[in-house]
Amino acid sequence: MAKLGPAGYSPYPVALYEGILTPPPGKALLFTELVDEEIAMREAAKAMFTRENPTVFPGPQVLYAWNEEAKKKAQLVRKMAEVFGARIIPMYDYRPKYPKIDPQKEINPNHPNLTIWHNNIKVCIFIGVHCHYANVALKIIRAETDCYTIALCGNAGHEDATVTLRDQHSEELEKFIRIAEEVKRELKK
Amino acid sequence: MQKTQQIKYNRAGQKVVSPEYLLFEAPRQKQFMTGSEVVKEAVKRASVDASVSYPITPQSEAAHLIGELWAEGYVGVYFRGESEFSVMSQLAGCSMAGGRAITTTSGPGTLRAMENFPMWAGSRLPLQLVLMARGVNSPLTIQPDNLEVSFLLDTGCMIWHAETAQELFDMILAGFVVAEQPDVHVPLITVIDGFFISHTREAVMLPPDDIALPPYNPYISPIPPIDMEMPPGRFLRDPFVMKSNYTSYATHASWQFEVRAAIERSRPYIRKYLKGLVEEFGDPEGEILFIASGTAAAQAKEATQMLIHDEGIKARVLRLKTVRPFPAKEIEEAVKGVKYVFIPEFNVVGWLEREVRNVLYGKTNVPIIGSPKVAGGMTMPPEIIVEEVLRILGKEVKHVP
């Protein structure tokens, strides 16, 4: 992610066309820089505590009990939202919603800007959203809003997010929550 | 993301090994094979779930041999489609359902199936098509020519171009590994020049056939595989396709950028599994640079040897292993210090010349010469490449009578 703030009326330029790639294993992406995972977690936590309307957008991979890992992650997502005092707006699935989704209640990957605009969300976490849909949504949010996006990805990460952490499983989420609690104390929130 | 159980043996009873072991570490034995036979050997070691075929020269034999693998228990599903359009559509279904799938086609069959390739890419299906290029009608041609690659460049698929049967074998296996990375996850078209590679025998080094790639894991796909909860095509029926408003257009644009971005994300994996997007050959100080791929690169290598040893002209080849992603930076780097760039090709339109000119526009003053080009089944002896270089340099032509 090269710039915060509206980038005109086109999703272009997407991050990768500015030479930004997903981080290699063991690293995270903070704006355009490769950093250690802990630094990225700390900056992400700071943003969640200091920007308006922090929101967690959980996707199907943590909303449904596919396996034990998914169940554990779901519990951690709830705990994470509590630590941040964040709202949860789920992305249940990727089906078309007729006649129209209620952007206060759920986020549609193909129209994420409706949710972001309507709620004036200035910082959010994507977690458990299948990578393609996360990427489509993050590109639109990046281009159309000034929302600070944090992608906690179980795979390789998302270069269009402001902060992207890769290979995030339950152990890493527990670490993120610990760091968030530390940042909360430091900020006296 | 879900963690899955480590699988030790695939459906054929082959031991599952890491891609790194299969590609780089396993002992290999020399065999003497055609490109078509090599396709069979690669698929045999690739834990393939499905293949659909339709006959067209010169790929028919490869498709037939994959069918033999099905009979032997190495491929899960195999059947013949009603046409190339059917084949590519049916293969998409196999992939959407979570299977690793491969097919082969050639020439006009490619164009008959054309609508499916951007659909594959937009649906994020890590399918593999082995394209044994033969040119495109009209007039009807059943000869070596790779014109059809020109039509495929902007489909959203990765395109790799093998020079030899050996490279085809390795590319098919590496291709599944790269295409199935969750941040890539787009189709791969593995091209060879038909007849030159498909129908001629060469020495190839093969690992044992009792080991194979790990099976495809659809649960790390960037799009959920279909099941009872997720029928196919839901994303294609999503409102952005159906509506005419600003957010719909923005979504469609974002989706298309994402597919292109996915191809670009394949670069680090290609560097690992293909040892780079390009191969450099010849005199590193060469003032004559050939940029080529496939069989044209093989002929350019021969010509380079002749220029160096017979003419005392420093020459080198930058052979492109991948066309999508396009190795733009590698080309920019390679043209530094050269006097002429030659781009030999086996097609009439010069698709590689166009690509190279595009990336070098405004970045170099080096003359780019899009020749020699042969088409319609003509061969490209290295002598005609040498002749072209000598002619441009204003030197006496000795090689060609």
Helices and strands of chain A, in N-to-C order? EEHEHHEHEHEEH
Low-confidence stretches of chain A: 1-9
Indicate the structural class of chain A.
alpha/beta
What is the β-strand count of chain B?
16
Radius of gyration of chain A: 15 Å
Q: State the CATH architecture of chain A.
A: 3-Layer(aba) Sandwich
Name the quaternary structure.
heterodimer
Terminal Cα span of chain B: 66 Å
Which whole number gives the mean pLDDT of chain A? Answer: 88
Q: Percent helix among the residues of chain B?
A: 25-40%
Head-to-tail CA distance between termini of chain A: 28 Å
Note poorly predicted spans of chain B: none
Number of helices of chain A: 6
Would you write up a description of this structure?
The complex is a heterodimer of chains A (189) and B (401). Chain A has helices at residues 37-50, 60-63, 68-84, 112-119, 131-144, 170-187; strands spanning 27-30, 33-36, 55-58, 87-88, 123-127, 148-152, 163-165. By secondary structure, chain A is of the alpha/beta class. In chain A, strand 5, helix 5 and strand 6 form a beta-alpha-beta unit. By secondary structure, chain B is α/β, with parallel strands linked by helices. Chain B folds into two domains: 19-208, 3-Layer(aba) Sandwich (Rossmann fold), CATH 3.40.50.970; 278-393, Rossmann fold, CATH 3.40.50.920. Chain B has 15 helices and 16 strands. The longest helix of chain B is centred in the middle third of the chain and has 19 residues, at 246-264. The radius of gyration of chain B is 21 Å and the shape is globular. The termini of chain B are far apart. At the A-B interface, helix 5 of A face helix 9 and helix 10 of B.
Essential attributes:
heterodimer; A: 189 residues; alpha/beta; Rossmann fold; 6 helices; 14% strand; globular; B: 401 residues; seven-stranded mixed sheet; 15 helices; 38% helix
